[in-house]
Amino acid sequence: MAQENSRLGPAEVVAAAQSDGKAHLLLACTGSVATIKIKQIILGLADYQNLSIRVILTASAAKFLTGENDEQPSLAEVRAMPNVDAVYLDEDEWGPQPWRRGANILHIELRRWASLLVIAPLSANSLAKVAGGFSDNLLTSVCRAWDTTPQADGTRKRIILAPGMNTQMYRHPVTARHLKVIEEDCGGPDGWIEVLRPISKALACGDVGDGAMVEWGVIVAGIEKRLGLTRVEGGAP
Q1: Catalytic pick from 24, 29, 107, 143?
Q2: The pLDDT value given to residue 98
Q3: Quick check: is 24 catalytic?
Q4: Which residues form the Flavoprotein domain (predicted)?
Q5: Which of 123, 141, 159, 224 makes an SS bond possible with 135, Cβ 3.0 to 4.6 Å?
Q6: pTM value?
């Protein structure tokens, strides 16, 4: 992992990295056990040397990264993974220096920096927030500030959502409404959001049914497609 400049605040560091010539992946996890799949997603992109990854973890997502076994990485392990230049928690929005007028704002700088935002997993709670336009943490602030026109950033950048939740949460009529809002108002060929619908499998809670996040390989393939990453046979990408 590249070492960030500790003399600058998080927002200033992101602003300084805007024009580094790399593809920029903003990878976010929310409060679902599928957060532990972040390891496979990042390692699935490890061969791309011209890729910079910045990770956002909600408070609930961070609780799954305890490093108890090989499947469940620690926060320190995620920070040290290939191409990961930073991991952000909610408190990074406001620190470490006190807020001052005219200072860089982290959620705005992350939006400007990102070539693509991927939220995998997207919990039922965070799905509701995205659909309703809430912006009460770092991740949802990035989503709400996304350039949908695109007038600010000059290009329409994509968001990929990979929901992951309990079967009954997924089958709840409120979830259906939230997905309908996102897919009809923000998706399609003229939109900016792509939803990777959950699959059916045995869930961590013991239930068997739909609601599980798609396999990590599908997410990696979506990232490769949207960022135009290509593998060179017999050599590094």
Answers
A1: 107
A2: 75
A3: no
A4: 24-223
A5: 141
A6: 0.92
* Lookup: tokens for 67: 């490093």
Q: Is 1 within 8 Å of 54 (Cβ atoms)?
A: no
What confidence tens digit (pLDDT) does each residue in 91-133 have?
999 877 777 888 899 999 999 999 999 999 999 999 999 999 9
pLDDT tens-digit series, residues 140-173 = 999 999 999 877 777 889 999 999 999 999 999 9
Spot the catalytic one: 29, 143, 178, 205: 205
- Where do the domains of the chain lie, and which CATH numbers do they carry? 10-227 (3.40.50.1950)
Q: Clarify whether 205 is annotated catalytic.
A: yes
